[in-house]
Amino acid sequence: MGVVELLLAGLVILLGLCGVLLPGVPGSWLVWAGVLWWALTDPRPVAWSVLVGATVVLLLSQAVRWALPPRRLRASGATRRLAVFAGAGAFLGFVLIPVVGAIPGFMGGIYLAERLRLGRHGEAVASLRTAMRSGGSSVLAELFACLLVAAAWLGAVIAG
Question: Which of 31, 28, 25 shows the shortest CA–CA distance to 11?
Answer without folding.
Answer: 31
